Amino acid sequence: MTTYLSGETASPSQNLDVPSRALAIGAHPDDIEFGCGGTLAKWAAKGCEIFHLVCTDGSKGTWDPDVDGAALARRRQREQTDAARILGGSAPVTFLGWTDGELESGMVQRGQIVEAIRRLKPDIILAHDPWKRYRLHPDHRHAGFLATDGVVAARDPLFFPELGAPHRPSKMLLWEADQPDHEENLDEELFQRKLLALKAHSSQYESTMGVNRLDDESQLVAFENRIRTRLSENSLSHNGQLSEVFKLIDKI
Ligand SMILES: [Zn+2]
C-alpha cells in the first residue's frame, strides 16, 4: 500500500500491458537507462518499438576540468546509441543537442518534443518526474516539464499545427517520482540487460557510477550491487522483487 500526502491509500499498479510503441525522454545520455532501462528491455523483448530522445549533449558530464566538451559530447552520443541498441531500441536515437546544464523548457524545445511525439506516435511516454522535490539539476527538471508539456501540446490540433497531425499517448510513466504508484518488475535477465546498457556509458563511470578504476573489478561489482539494492528496495509491493517504479499518469 502506498500512503499519499492526503492520507489516501491505494494499491500500486504493476506491469502494464506491453505497448506497441514507447518513447523515453531523458535530459542526458544515461538518464533513460537509470530511469527505465529494464522496463524498455522488457517491452522490446515482447515486440514493442522503443525510441530514445535525449535533450542535451552531455558535454559537462565529467569531473575532469580539462576534458574537451565537444569530444565528450561525441563520445556520449556513441555510448547512448550503444545503450539503446542493448535495450532493443529502434535506431536512431533522437538527440536534441542542447548544451548540457543549459536546457530550458521553452516553446522552441517544446516544439521539438511535439515533433518527436507526432512522428514516433508512442502509446506510452517515459520521462523524469519534473515535480520531484528538492531536485537540484535543472536539466532533469526541464526535461520532465518538456515531456509533460509536450504531451499536452502534441495531443491537441491547435498547438504547433505546422508539426503534423496530433497524437495522444495513452499513458506516461515518470521515473524519480516522490510518490511512485506503479512498478514494472524485472527478472534477473532484464536486470543484467539494464546493467549492460548502463555500462555502455563508460565516460560516466567516475562521475555517476563511483567507478574510478576500470581495472578494479570490485568497483564494477559494487556498482552492480548498488543498482540491485536500489531496485529491490524500490519494490512497492515490499517483496524485494527487482522493480523500476514510476508515477503513472493515465489520463491524458
Ligand atoms: Zn542526467
Strand order of the largest sheet: 3-9-10-8-7-4-5-6
Low-confidence segments, ≥5 residues, pLDDT <50? none
How are helices and strands ordered from N to C? EEEEHEHEHEHEEHHHE
Strand content is 15-25%
Intertermini distance: 25 Å
Number of beta-strand segments: 10
How would you explain this protein's 3D organization?
This protein is of the alpha/beta class and 252 residues long. It has a single domain, classed as LmbE-like (Rossmann fold). It is 40% helix and 18% strand. The chain is built from seven helices and ten strands. The protein has helices at residues 31-45, 69-87, 107-120, 138-155, 188-199, 205-209, 217-234; strands at residues 2-3, 9-10, 13-14, 21-26, 49-56, 94-98, 124-128, 171-175, 182-185, 243-249. Strands 3-9-10-8-7-4-5-6 form an eight-stranded mixed sheet, sandwiched between helices. A two-stranded antiparallel sheet has the order 1-2. β1 (2-3) and β2 form a beta hairpin. α1 (31-45) packs parallel to α2 (69-87) and α3 (107-120) crosses α4. The radius of gyration is 18 Å and the shape is globular. The mean pLDDT is 93. Bound molecules: zinc ion (ZN). Zinc ion (ZN) is lined by residues 27-28, 31, 140.
